[in-house]
Amino acid sequence: MKIIDGKAIAATIRAELKEKIEKLPEKPGLAVVLVGSDPASQIYVRNKIKACAEVGILSYSYELPDSCSQKDLEDLLDELAKAKNIHGILLQLPLPKGFDEEVAMSKIPTEKDVDGFSAENLGKLVLHEEKTVACTPLGVMQIFKREGIELEGKNAVVLGRSNTVGKPMALLLLNANATVSVCHSKTRNLKEICRNADILVSAIGKPKFVKADMVKDGAVVIDVGINRDENGKLCGDIDFENVKEKASYITPVPGGVGPMTIAMLMYNTYVAARKE
Questions:
Q1: Where are the beta strands (DSSP E) in 83-212?
Q2: Which residues are part of the catalytic machinery?
Q3: Dihedral (CA of 140, 145, 150, 151) sign
Q4: CA 141, 143, 149, 151: dihedral to nearest 10 degrees?
Q5: Per-residue pLDDT tens for 245-269?
Q6: Is 0.85 topped by the overall pTM?
């Protein structure tokens, strides 16, 4: 069994990106927009700005108060969409109550959608013509690649069907010639389906939901969940201590997929700045 060190892989990717960015004629610019004062979102934003500084991306931070209106947010996004020095726009989600996320996200042009959430970018992924892919699933694919984990012909199970993780994850695995099942709250015989998985990716947001009896011996287990357990301690969707005894590879929480997500945001911003 190998515990995958997402921090180390992400550090390698950031070092590679730094070299590539130094060769660009102009530095990429990333605008990070935060609405309200959610502490978790503030931490995510700080981590993204820190990563930008490390790889040579210019970051521009825009913090709007809770009291701002939908129009204030849309006006800012319209302004950033036109700005020549901004190659990527990241709108930190979730937005506070009362905001229309879908309308706000539609203000971000596809070529500046470094989160990979736009309908056009998701559509390209369906057509296997992907350019900008959602950062978390892309980070998981990098883990497979850099750990030498074979996907072709394997049974892959994705727990969760969100537009930001579950669906793009399933499509990426399908494009890599895995046989993919997507499970969700209405799935029957969930335990049996999971037990057939060579590759199991969980993104459902339920603390320690995946128990050892749901995992096949030798499976590759990827935990995308970020939750708090009964003691308030950070944990994933996987019952890590028990499942790790059965898995051939497993990602921990924290230190697994999380650092990869930010590394892929940097990668997507670099690709957007290349304008290829």
A1: 88-91, 155-159, 179-183, 199-202
A2: 48, 92, 115
A3: positive
A4: -10
A5: 999 999 999 999 999 999 999 999 9
A6: yes
